[in-house]
Amino acid sequence: MNDYSRCGAALIAKKFVLTAAHCVGSDDDFEIGITEALPMASALFLESDSGGEEFAWSRLVIHPNYDPKAVDSDIAIYELVDEVPDGSLPPILLGKDPVSETGTDMTVIGFGDVDAGPDTVLSDILLETTVDYLPNDDCFNQMIQNGGFDPINPTMLCGYREGEDSCQGDSGGPLFLKGDTPEEDQLVGLVSWGYDCGGNTPGVYTRISYFYDWIVETMCYLNATGVPDYVDCANVTITEEPIIYNATDEGWSFGSDDDFLSSLWGSDDDSNDDFLSGLWGNGDGDDDFWSGITGDDDFWNTDDDFFSSLWNNDDANTGDDDFFSSLWGNDDANTGDDDFFSSLWGNDDANTGDDDFFSSLWGNDDAGNLDDDSWIDGALDAVDGWLASTFGNGRRW
After folding, report:
1. Are the beta carbons of 395 and 383 closer than 8 angstroms?
2. Which end of the chain has fewer beta carbons closer than 10 Å to its terminal beta carbon, N or C?
3. Correct CATH for 10-243 of 3.30.70.600, 3.40.50.150, 2.40.10.10, 3.40.50.300
4. 282 touches 272 (CB < 8 A)
5. Domain residue spans of the chain
6. DSSP letter, residue 135
7. Using CA atoms, how far apart are residues 226 and 320, in angstroms rounded to an integer?
8. What is the pLDDT of residue 37?
9. 205 phi and psi, to 5 degrees?
């Protein structure tokens, strides 16, 4: 899959392909059994990026629990229009039994990023590496120790070997246990997500054993005659009718008005009725998540947002009825006559008022030039009298 973005996939039957759900929309067909990709200049003049045969799909089912935010249940199954002919590529066996032994060798292949730095450099040849199975608890602990924070769910499987990893562009591709022959290989995972490629954190894969029953049920529902030989649809119970996307449905193609991605980005993929609008609004405007914080136009200058409750309707420090007015008065400055600080420094909010808290300490002029009505003045007068009676002289100011 290498049109709108690059992804891998796994042929599991002559008419069925598995990939990651987050790869849906990356292409409208599959190049199966290829080992190298043509240079872009050459591919421009061919229908195939590899010069090989492409297989169009007819129907698609995305796992109903797929969560793009958590990248959970990251799996989708495609039915192909035509069978992949014998001799092209043997379908890989589905791994029904979960991998459980720490350190189990697992092989991952793909055409993904080979640059350890920030740049993305996709490989032109099919690459292969080996990673070790890591139990989910150990995987999560290693993630936490190296700055990761996302949960490792039972739907996921981890693989790690220092310096070895899958990366961007490998998504949806197979993680498998090698058999004595390709026909004996077992698919145990699909490349799903990770943090740094080849770094200190494990790669995370969709766990095939967890979804084995769903995969089999979906294949039997879509086309009972196209399943692998080891699957007997007569003994399979369909527990839930899948939601099916047809390639022939009007508007399905990537970037159109009513496709899967439109459910994320809207009818024209940047409009006002999509998932992201729930965060940023129909046109980043008046009724979105952020408006609840910063007001209808998402800036700090409106009349009904969170910050207005602090700085008043104009969101500036000049309003007459906001939170800060209760401190500095109606004009939100340190000059008002009826605010919190007036009770300390007097009606003019300065240290010169006549009836404030500090006046009761230092006198009406709030300065060191004490009058005769401050608390401190009264106390010092008493001390002065005692000193005079004892020593014959008083304090000097």
Report:
1. yes
2. C
3. 2.40.10.10
4. yes
5. 10-243
6. -
7. 74
8. 75
9. -130, 150
Query: How far apart are the C-alpha atoms of 170 and 127, rounded to whole Å?
Result: 10
Euclidean distance between CA atoms 148 and 150, whole angstroms: 6
pLDDT tens column, 72-95: 999 999 999 999 998 888 999 999
Residue predicted with more confidence, 92 or 287: 92
Say which range, 15-19, 30-34, 197-201, 339-343, has the weakest mean pLDDT. Answer: 339-343
- Do the Cβ atoms of 123 and 133 come closer than 8 Å? no
Q: Select the more confidently predicted residue: 196 or 314.
A: 196
The 10 Å Cβ neighbour count of residue 45 is 7
Q: Is the dihedral of CA 366, 369, 373, 377 positive or negative?
A: positive
Asked whether the beta carbons of 72 and 153 are under 8 A apart, the reply is yes
Q: Give the list of residues 6+ apart from residue 98 with CB closer than 8 angstroms, or none.
A: 207, 209, 210
Structure tokens at 240: 């839930």
pTM of the full structure:
0.63
Q: Which residues are catalytic?
A: 22, 74, 171
